[in-house]
């Protein structure tokens, strides 16, 4: 579904992504793990058009999307849940979800997707009339994922969904990611919590200072001594 080859991203003279290559097969969960500053978030932002690639290529469903604008990529079927959630704090939960369906012409379909979100996240439904900024961190993360569900698309980019959450909520968020995947959505997951990410992923790539250095089936990556020492603490 997604093929990234020799991706480079620069901020002025600073090369944040030097040479990143990976593939995301349709219907799978693929995770990118690595330390802070490795280039994980920048990679996702390049995939969704929020950063411009300075080299390499991004191919989605056979179409070269390198350099495409973010709003055009949403229409192609790519949804992005950014680091820090980025919900609209002064809009209600319901308004956040309704706004996420702006590209969907069939408003009945938008309502159906919203009902799907409410079924998946009962706490989001309970707080439908609350302002987004009044939600807890975990509730905001659920809302952010819910917005992506309403937007739709075949590929979901998730950036640090467990950041700042209590352990019980981390488990719940990862359970929901698996559920979303089982419903047919392909997932590319960037996650600091390598143990949880490798537990649910099919394939994994390790990013180090702007390069992909280790790759393979997630279970094999989790057993790799280099990964266990550097990212799993064992």
């Amino acid at each position: 579904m997604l093929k990234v080859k020799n991706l480079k991203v620069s901020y002025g003279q600073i090369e944040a992504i030097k040479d990143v290559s990976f593939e995301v097969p349709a219907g799978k969960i693929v995770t990118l793990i690595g330390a802070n500053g490795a280039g994980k978030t920048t990679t996702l932002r390049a995939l969704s058009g929020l950063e411009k690639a300075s080299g390499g290529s991004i191919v989605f469903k056979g179409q070269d999307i390198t350099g495409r604008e973010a709003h055009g990529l949403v229409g192609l079927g790519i949804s992005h849940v950014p680091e820090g959630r980025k919900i609209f704090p002064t809009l209600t939960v319901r308004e956040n979800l309704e706004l996420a369906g702006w590209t969907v012409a069939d408003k009945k379909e938008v309502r159906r997707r919203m009902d799907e979100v409410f079924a998946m996240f009962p706490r989001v439904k309970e707080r439908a009339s609350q302002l987004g900024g009044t939600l807890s961190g975990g509730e905001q993360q659920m809302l952010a994922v819910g917005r992506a569900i309403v937007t739709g698309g075949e590929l979901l980019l998730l950036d640090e969904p467990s950041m700042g959450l209590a352990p019980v909520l981390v488990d719940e968020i990862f359970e929901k990611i698996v559920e979303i995947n089982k419903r047919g959505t392909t997932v590319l997951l960037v996650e600091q919590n390598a143990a949880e990410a490798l537990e649910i992923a099919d394939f994994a790539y390790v990013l180090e200072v702007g390069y992909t250095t280790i790759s393979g089936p997630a279970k094999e990556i989790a057993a790799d001594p280099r990964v266990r020492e550097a990212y799993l603490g064992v």
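Strands lie at 2-11, 14-24, 29-33, 55-60, 63-64, 78-81, 155-159, 186-190, 203-208, 211-217. The two ends are 34 Å apart (CA to CA).
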